[in-house]
Amino acid sequence: MQFKLPRPPRLNNRPNLSEAVYEIVKQRLLSQQLEPGTKLREEDLADQLGVSRTPVREAINKLEREGLVEIIPRYGTFVANISPKDVEEIYQLRETLEGLAIKLALPRFSRNKLLELTRIHKECEAPIEKGDFDPFIRVDTAFHHLLVKLSKNERLIRLMSNLDNQIRLGRLESFSVPGRAKKSLEEHETVIEAMLKGDADEAEELLRQHSRNAKDNILRFLKMKKGE
Known about the structure:
Keywords: DNA-binding, Transcription, Transcription regulation. Residues 15-82 form the HTH gntR-type domain. This protein is mostly helical. The longest helix is centred in the last third of the chain and has 27 residues, at 200-226. Helices cover 68% and strands 4% of the residues. It has a three-stranded antiparallel β-sheet with strand order 1-3-2. It has ten helices and three strands.
């Protein structure tokens, strides 16, 4: 499968072309507008975006380092497929790192901030019931980012940043399983309730279980795709 990318306006006027190309392609990968296995051709991308092949090559190399594309010698560049082994490794790290992050971050959450998070999550319930996952995907991403940011542990933040794009891919796969988005929302709410009580141990265990549930659902989705 190949893909065609609409040419963004005035892309060739941007100061950092490789970064601009990187951001455009990455967003299409993370939103799954570009499906796993799609072949990406440097010359086609360069033509469609109105740039030379150099910034395209630099963008593709960065995407490969982040695990979002796979470069196969003599065959080309493809949107990466997420394998069960990838899921196991990514979510083992996520569970451990976020478990630490929430214990470090909890003292920095005000009660008002936690109540605001509760309200924002409640507002996602109606869209989810209608099959609109976009509001919760935004809240879900922001919630996990905030936990990590407020840990104030720079090394932890960098490690999670490296995992972030692959986690976001997995999150979309997880929501493809019927009922998972609603369940994930409920899991967030129980984590916030534990945080409101100031119970760091309970909040950590609930967040770890949330990560394990997400992993299990992604693995279930991958089996469904294979028809197992």
